[in-house]
């Protein structure tokens, strides 16, 4: 049986005092690709935020990449984040510096110091996302699809066991979306990275089928049908 990367048991997820998702039970294994769907406001982002330590788990049990979510404090969040990569719809790249410097910024912020190892790592992740030799570019010199690839490269820097992607195709045309989906599936399959991707994009789910989890009326439904 593959290693469990995400486990939530009887988890209640709150925004402030509001209970958003109740009695969430979810397991995701190494290399697994999971879609997270649900209406606007149904709690997808709240669930992802709980997994990357932006919302603290107050009730129930949770584990992400060996990290106990009940044990998260602001001081410990960096340790949790080091084991996962987060990809957003709007890329969130630093616009005032090159791709290379965007990636180096994250490595330094997560404790890397050796210049040669940093260079090798940056080359490695750019290669994985198909952007070899594009490190000198500024974000504004790249297309949306290329910027999303940089965002994914950034998420891969610390060899995470899990990638959490919040609508990564939300700003992309269908053809570019397909390329990003192929990349995410390749990362899951070839590197054993579990991927949880929140999306409203049912076209990509149809084209790239995978297990689908749905937030609906305060619950999380596993293996949900979306069509
Ligand atoms: N920072 C916050 N403070 C208080 N309530 C919040 C906060 N963020 C979200 N909420 C509420 O939590 C509920 C779930 O929101 P969430 O963003 O998780 O939904 P979602 O499914 O990701 O929606 P979308 O598809 O629009 O991204 C909503 O009712 C929202 O208003």
UniProtKB/TrEMBL annotation:
Pfam family, one: ABC_tran
SUPFAM superfamilies: P-loop containing nucleoside triphosphate hydrolases (SSF52540)
InterPro entries (alphabetical): AAA+_ATPase, ABC_transporter-like_ATP-bd, ABC_transporter-like_CS, ABC_transpr_LolD-like, P-loop_NTPase
GO terms of biological process kind: cell division
Keywords tagged on the record: ATP-binding, Cell cycle, Cell division, Nucleotide-binding
Keyword DNA damage carried by entry: no
Domain of life: Bacteria
Gene Ontology MF terms in the entry: ATP binding; ATP hydrolysis activity; transmembrane transporter activity
GO cellular component terms, A-Z: plasma membrane
Claim: ATP-binding is one of the keywords in the record: yes
Residues annotated as domain ABC transporter: 6-226
Family named by the database record: Belongs to the ABC transporter superfamily.
Role played: Part of the ABC transporter FtsEX involved in cellular division. Important for assembly or stability of the septal ring.
Record-given protein name: Cell division ATP-binding protein FtsE
Organism: Dinghuibacter silviterrae
Taxonomic placement: Bacteria, Pseudomonadati, Bacteroidota, Chitinophagia, Chitinophagales
